Amino acid sequence: MRNKSTLLNVFLAAIIVVLVYQVSNQKIPAPKVQSANGSSYVSLGDTVASEKRSLGPKSYIMPKPALVIGSYGNDGTPNIMTAAWAGIVNSDPLSVGVSIRASRKSYENIMATKAFTINVPSASYVAEMDYVGTVSGYDEDKFKKLGLTAVKGSHVDAPYIGEFPLVIECEVTEAIDLGSHTQFIGRIIDTKVDEHLIKQNGHIDIEQMQPVIFSHEYYYGYGQRLAKPSDIYKVFKDDMEPDMPATRYANSTLSSIYNRKSVRHYTSRVVSKGQLNELLRAGMAAPTAMDKRPWAFVVVQERALLDSLAAALPYGKMLYQATAAIVVCGDLNKTLDGEVQQYWIQDCSAATQNILLAAESMGLGAVWTGVYPRQARIETVTGLLNIPESAIPLNVIAVGYPTGEDQPKDKWDETTIHWEKW
Ligand SMILES: Cc1cc2nc3c(=O)[nH]c(=O)nc-3n(C[C@H](O)[C@H](O)[C@H](O)COP(=O)(O)O)c2cc1C
Fold it and tell me: Do residues 302 and 315 share a domain?
């Protein structure tokens, strides 16, 4: 009898141990997301409740904006400084809060004028943004130094940066001394955005605008599109499904692939040499047969040459607007021999596609127009650009800043797929 009850106790204890183990290891259920092809799968983030280490008080709200605050000095000199301690603080009246140390020139300016602008930089202005966050207006005219255009606000007594894509004019309603910083509460009077960044649905095209994110160690560019507000929550509703599948955009490489489009409309903004070098680096990262890299690139930035290419190529009219072009050539001195010589076409096509995808990922727009194998076009391009006989131009890639008119297409077509055998 005693043996029996001991056995029962051991059995019950074992069950309790198993149950406690299971409960303590239970994971927070991961949201199910509907994929484009209808299958359901898990995709959003870390789903395990992990141990935390305490770091004490830190300013690790992530991400933080990297904004540039514009103000006038008492002699009318425009000044700009970077601020990350900033954000929307009220809806009605629509207001922002920007915290600024009393030691800043901007503090002195804003205290006097009771006005400031918020200038949202695009990624291409990250160096300027960092500069104005390091050097003080007490020591230098930062607008002059950086060659930026100070435009007088149309509603408040503060300048904005003509080159930045998004500016917000604010009138100070309160200045709250918080200790190290004074928080200026600014009522938003007006918001101005570059025309080409306004999408047809009235929203700002943030992917094209490429705002900067501040995260202590680094500045980051705008990330992947994950999901749609007031939509993705539906994954937790039994009777609802999100309109926008999250999958396609939860990965920056796929995002560039799916968002790439042939861009034929450009603004007048010039693509820099640094950006063109980045595109070329991306092109040269393509795989090639036997690692031969049988390519050469002619980069064209001269207006007259771009116009000549536009006039000469039947499908090259976008080159009149483009501010640069990359001509991808096969270098016959570097190809394989014999039957496989033609692999240069695949190799250079892979480089071309890399360039197109890199352009998309950098907020640029590009499109390629074919040259090889059309003899007349080969002769025209060869003649215009001094290409030697040992090289063949495969295509011309027009590059520029997109106006936003060109949109990606969804080309998914199940009828083109043959599983296992055709
Ligand atoms: C990324 C970044 C964020 C910054 N955020 C703030 C901020 O929120 N408040 C502040 O007072 N200073 C901030 N600073 C520092 C000022 O921008 C910097 O001291 C600047 O030189 C001040 O310029 P001024 O004296 O011309 O006003 C930041 C600097 C950087 C680089």
Answer: yes
One domain, residues 270 and 396: yes
Phi and psi angles of residue 255, each rounded to the nearest 5 degrees, phi first: -60, -45
Q: Please, are residues 115 and 155 in contact by the beta-carbon 8 Å criterion?
A: no
From 159, 162, 163, 167, select the one nearest 78 (Cα to Cα): 159
Give yes or no: residues 208 and 294 share one domain. no
CATH of the domain at 292: 3.40.109.10
User: Any residues with Cβ below 6 Å from ligand 1, and which?
Assistant: 66, 79, 81-85, 99-101, 104-106, 130, 133-138, 181, 214
Structural domain of 253: 225-259
In the predicted structure, residue 17 carries a pLDDT above the cut 90: no
206/300 same-domain check: no
Do both 238 and 275 map to the same domain? no
> What would you measure as the largest C-alpha separation in the chain, in angstroms?
105
Q: What whole-number percentage of the chain has pLDDT above 70?
A: 87
pTM over 0.85, yes/no = no
Torsion angles phi and psi, residue 229, rounded to 5: -60, 150
Is residue 78 domain-shared with residue 192, that is, in the same domain? yes
Bridge partners, residue 391, by sequence: 331
Evaluated on CA atoms 116, 121, 125, 126, the torsion sign reads: positive
Question: What distance in Å separates the CA atoms of residue 256 and residue 361, rounded to the nearest whole number?
Answer: 5
| Residue from 72, 104, 134, 181 to probe ligand 1 pocket by mutation (most atoms less than 8 Å from CB) | 104
For atom 9 of ligand 1, the residue with the nearest CA is: 100
* Residue 12: per-residue pLDDT: 58
- Give the total number of structural domains in the chain: 3
